Amino acid sequence: MRLVSLVLLVALALGAITGGRLGGLARLRIRWTPLALAGLALQILPPAGWWPLGLLYLSFVLLVVFCLVNGSNPGFALILAGTLMNFLVIGVNNGMPVSRSALVDSGQQHTLSDLIHEGGVKHHLAGPDDQLMFLADVIAVPPPVRQAVSAGDVVAYVGVGYLVIAAMHRERRRQPLLLGVAERVRDG
After folding, report:
1. Which of 32, 74, 37, 82 is nearest to 166 (CA)?
2. 119 phi and psi angles, rounded to 5 deg
3. Nearest Cα to 156, choosing from 85, 57, 97, 98?
4. Deepest in the core among 92, 94, 106, 184, taking most CB within 10 A?
5. Which segments within the chain are labelled E, that is strand?
6. CA distance linking residue 153 with residue 145, whole number of Å
7. pTM to 2 decimals?
8. If 0-12 CB within 10 Å is exposed, 13-18 middle and 19+ buried, where does residue 112 land?
9. Angle CA 183–34–24, to nearest 5
10. Is the Cβ–Cβ distance between 160 and 8 less than 8 Å?
């Protein structure tokens, strides 16, 4: 969560420094947001039982559909690519492998015993049978962030940053008053 917050803060700062305006974010049209929220909730709050891996896969399907619906917005192609990269490595390995070195280098060595003994639905300590390790959580982000991330995370975060900066630079269209009202009524 810290890294997402940092990406947003940096994007907002870069957008402002380069002449963008926060008002552009208000004009950004993100559709089907509840779909993304449901997808993220399924990843953060996996239920107990035998079906959590299926719900994790479902969460990625929801996120992919959300990205496709919003594909006309700048940055969403990168967000989609990152999401698909993570979905691929999780699908092949029945969860995201996390390298021991990424955990140690990111200052999360205290989580090693949890991953070794309990594992998790979404993450597990990488082992010799895991595949596509170059797409796994192998990139250490040191303190104060303390996070192990994947190449897919990096691509998606770049997409989020690009979306914010591009939205801040989006020009407000000048249009006749009645046309603007008609668009608002149509878009609901």
Report:
1. 74
2. 65, -160
3. 85
4. 106
5. 96-98, 123-125, 139-141, 147-149
6. 14
7. 0.86
8. middle
9. 45
10. yes
